Fold this protein.
Amino acid sequence: MFCRIPSLSVLHRFILRNGWVAFFFILVGGGYAQVLYHGKSQLTRLSKERELLIEERGRAFKERERLKARVHSYQDIRWQEMVLKEKLGVVSEGETKVVFEE
């Protein structure tokens, strides 16, 4: 009375015998997808960090040039006189210093 379908049992045996292969491919595919996702997010993060470092490098070069100019100006006699007058209150010959007290 009960009719058995032979193709179903062959398919069933095939899945039982080779199911681990399908499971393996699914597992490897999932791992690969996860690596791609994390790699892409890490690439984005590193790209942003690279841009920040490039900007910081530009600021450092500007600061370096500013400091070079400042060191060079220390050797200028006019600049030295200006600093002596402003910071130390020195007066040149022939000038009169006036101090206002409060």
In short: DSSP finds two helices and no strands in the chain. The helical segments are 6-74, 77-88. Residues 29-88 form one domain. The longest helix spans residues 6-74.
